[in-house]
Write a structure and sequence with these properties.
single chain; 179 residues; alpha/beta; Rossmann fold; 6 helices
């Protein structure tokens, strides 16, 4: 299923719709590898039971997670795959890497458009997305992503949102998929 949105639709509106494809009447348990402030879940609170949040920095949350790990998501995934982190029952893995400077094609330090700690540490968003797939695969659970290109997976649902960038129009891809 492919959904198309025009510029101006908020991430949390799209995420609520995508979570609806997974929601089966019981609250979802989510592992979010790039939590940030939790804006994704603004409209989806009734569908969510538990959120295990991971982020390189602690932010001021809009939606407070159940459990928070302050660390690089790639380190968290390694620990989770080795069984060092107890995740409990998981229904969905989420990844939304910070890539605002990448979609403009220049380094964050040159433009100042992104002050994300990952960018300041020189981490590429591709490696963050690359860490999410093995965790999704190991848990046997779907992956919800927001990224600059569609992932190579079996999509349950995919949304394409048009965005205005510095030079013309571009796309942001949201998807729920399995590997």
């Amino acid at each position: 299923m492919i959904l198309r949105y025009r510029h101006g639709v908020k991430s949390y509106e799209i995420v609520k719709r995508l979570l609806g494809y997974i929601y089966a009447g019981r609250p979802l348990n989510i592992v979010d590898l790039t939590y940030g402030v939790g804006r994704f879940y603004r409209l989806s609170r009734p569908m969510i039971g538990r959120i295990v949040a991971v982020d390189i920095a602690r932010h001021r949350w809009e939606v407070e997670p159940t459990v928070f790990y302050q660390m690089d998501c790639r380190v968290f995934v390694d620990r989770a795959l080795r069984g060092e982190v107890a995740l409990g029952d998981v229904d969905l893995v989420v990844v939304d890497p910070p890539w605002s400077h990448e979609k403009r094609g220049v380094a964050a330090r040159e433009t100042g458009v992104s002050r994300q700690p990952y960018h300041m540490a020189g981490v590429d968003s591709r490696s963050i997305v690359g860490a999410a797939a093995p965790l999704s695969r190991a848990l046997g659970k779907p992956l919800l992503y927001r990224y600059r290109e569609p992932l190579q997976c079996n999509h349950i649902a995919q949304a394409i949102a048009e965005v205005k960038m510095l030079r013309g129009r571009g796309h942001v891809y949201y998807g729920v998929c399995t590997f």
